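Hi team,

As requested, here is the filled-out complex form for the S-adenosylmethionine run. I kept the field names the same as last time so the parser does not choke. Let me know if anything looks off before we queue the next batch.

— J.
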Amino acid sequence: MQKPPLLPARLPKSQVQQTYTWIAPVHDLLAVLVEAKARRLGLQWADVQDGETVLEVAVGTGLSFRHLLAQNPTGWTEGVDLTPAMLRFAERRAARAGHANYRLQLGDAYDLPFEDDTFDLVLNSYMFDMLPEGDFVPVLREFGRVLKPGGRLVQVNMAPGEHPYNSIWEMIYRLHPPLLGGCRGVATAPFLEEAAFTKVRRRFVSQWTFPSEVVYGKKPGRGPE
Ligand SMILES: C[S@@+](CC[C@H](N)C(=O)[O-])C[C@H]1O[C@@H](n2cnc3c(N)ncnc32)[C@H](O)[C@@H]1O
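And here is what came back:
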């Protein structure tokens, strides 16, 4: 797959916590409005089977995490995020849903606090769009490390626009990246292939002009490749 040119990342990791601490109370306003469609497709592609061991990296305020819990009532679901303020919203949301078989904790996508070959599924949404392109493959390899052989990775990311009306979001990012939480459009499918994922597929989704992608890959090792 071709790698399209990407805008440079402009939110250094050292500023993520500070930025997402002030974004946390308002995060869901935009997320619900423009990301719901792609998030739904991501959960559909994740295809959680009850009883699985599931990890969401960068769980944020828990908008997807609550669905993972609902789909996995007899399994085990973990969530990590770098920002305590975002995690507090996720904890409240998960507690309201009334499940007990999960854990939410501080954690860094670059160095996940889990053993090798632990998870059937890793879900990761709207985080790669703030990482420098040079970090994509190392972080994807870290996701691959904690996946069981044959495990699935599903990502949902802000994507480069495919229509003129999508470009408003790129303009906002160019003007002041923190307005979009430091997120710009990325296309990660070729990087999944570089990080040795198989069966890679991608779909572009637009909602209220906001461009997203949903990307799927499988860690080799079990089942038909
Ligand atoms: C735009 S929010 C998305 C939250 C959630 N995934 C969603 O889709 O609603 C980005 C999240 O990524 C988290 N994040 C950024 N870099 C991270 C890293 N290296 N490890 C873990 N979480 C990270 C931020 O703290 C923030 O909660």
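Two things worth flagging: The CA atoms of residues 166 and 209 lie 5 Å apart. The chain has a mean pLDDT of 95.

Thanks,
J.
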